[in-house]
Amino acid sequence: MKVLAIVASPRKGKSTDTLVDRAVAGLRSGDRKVKIEKVNLYDFDIQFCKNCLVCRDRETDEDFSPCIIKDGMNELYPKVMAADALIFGTPLHMGYPPGILMTFLERLCWTFGKPEGKVLTVYGCPVPRSSKERSAVIIITNGIIPPMYRRFCDDTTKAIKQTIRDSLNARTVGSLYAGDIENRGLDPYLERAENLGKKLSR
Predict the structure, then answer these.
(1) What domains lie within the chain, and their CATH numbers?
(2) What global pTM score does this model have?
């Protein structure tokens, strides 16, 4: 089992990083043999999507439609392709994904998805190019908003969940919202993050 842990926080060694590490520890404690790689998106040159639609419109039976932009995503695409499971860790910025994570998700959409889906009467929605099934967990951190208010401010979990479902054929098996960290600290969330990792291993 190959697992890719993706961190979208510029603050290395802080809350998001720590909770992802705890999820990884929980994953390692399972019985299954796993190969885990952790990447931080801020270590890569990830350019904005140019909306050229070359990846979307390329007709191919392959699991991947290459992007015309040559940047750090060229190193990340094979890692995503090889992954059987994903761990996403990110802070919440104004209720939304940080810019680098949103750009990463946009760049995944049509490289791994094809416009053959239908939602209600709308055709052209992304469906996975690959039949490979993946699983995922999502960890969200926020300094000031308590968990009880998550539903009012967390659009990030939805964005990740929907993109990886439609493009990567990934099922989200659990998520953690670690809120109000500036007052609560990380202790209330450490075990829950570890349990997420264990859940992913199953």
Answers:
(1) 2-201 (3.40.50.360)
(2) 0.94
